[in-house]
Amino acid sequence: MGYGVEQRATERVKAIGAAIESSIIADRRYYHAHPEPSGKEHATSESICGRLDALGVPYRRVAETGVIASVRGAAGASGEACRAIALRCDIDALPVTERTGLPYASEKIGMMHACGHDCHIAMMLGATRILRDLASEFAGEARILFQPAEEISIGSTKMIEAGALDGVDTIYGAHIWSEIDAGLFSCEAGRRMAHTDWFRIDIEGVSAHGSMPHKGVDAIVVGAEMIDALQILVSRDISPFEPAVVTVGEFHGGEARNIMAGSAYLTGTVRTWSDELRRELPSCIEHIAEKTAHTFGAVARVTYEEGNAGLSNDVKCAKRAQLAVAEVLGAEALGKYRGTLSGEDFSEYLRVVPGVFVFIGCRNPEVGASHPQHSCYYDVDESVLAKGSMVAAQYAIDFLQGR
């Protein structure tokens, strides 16, 4: 296709995006007020299907609460095999009690869209609307994935098993991001997010009356020593040039206030940047747990679970994403971000097809958008949402037009 056709599509992307901005924001606020936990996004899924019905976009339900929609281009393909691209968003919320005081705050105590997935749904519905209206500009298929259970790292695998990537050549994903200023898009190639793994340490001590501590082995004390030792693992046993995080997120032990705990357990997460360190850390954690327990006369058992692999952007896809941002927003919207030790199950899609994961900046203290992901005060600058829809649509059109 010629330059004139490409330019026309871009101008229409911008025009439609501007026209539907208010509805994108309204969708974000609706989903923000109605969060659902991972794997149980039934009402969210039903609502998404209702939006797609209104748009006249066909879809199918998969993975219990997932939805796969499809927008097929109407342009001729000149006898060439049609391309297919997947655009993915996640739809689950977090077990967080919201404290923002917003008029559209979560209506469910203990559940909140504290990671921005409400924004992702709204932006992807906006991108779907744009692609539907511009189907005459491209050939092939834009397949939109509304994925459940990202926060528990299993949703992408379920979507893949359901055929989400069958016949797909590449995939695009994006995350609204609190560490980047509103309006900037980070699309760099290479590693962007860390390997994400999990551990649990079960401690067996000996229970005793609280007034007779010398008669038992206090599993809580043993666990507390392990927590201190695990901090030393990162600060003293790993090179400061090697990014890594070991976080204990849970510590449970004891049954009554006057009984010394005979058992306890810790759970946590490990984030690593390099493949080599990822392979080394399980044995390091096991060594610390076993030796610490032995020192106090207790026994420790470590269960280690590999989660999602690190997320890396394909070079060609990253360049295409940068072009899409520049086309619809101008080169000044291209931001720089070093990456994060957060994890994402989008990496599972990248094991199958090449793709790109874009960080969309939403930080703006002037509108209260200054808190990090997963905070009970988390909010975003909503002016970036329509931009996110436009970039996703432009990226898909560019790919389907052969760029």
Automatic annotation (TrEMBL):
Ranges for the Peptidase M20 dimerisation domain?
A: 198-293
Instruction: Give the source's domain of life in one word.
Output: Bacteria
Mind telling me which Gene3D superfamilies this protein's record contains?
Answer: 3.30.70.360, Zn peptidases (3.40.630.10)
Q: Which SUPFAM superfamilies match?
A: Bacterial exopeptidase dimerisation domain, Zn-dependent exopeptidases
Q: Which InterPro entries match?
A: Amidohydrolase, Bact_exopeptidase_dim_dom, Peptidase_M20, Peptidase_M20_dimer
Provide the protein name: Peptidase
UniProt organism field: Raoultibacter timonensis
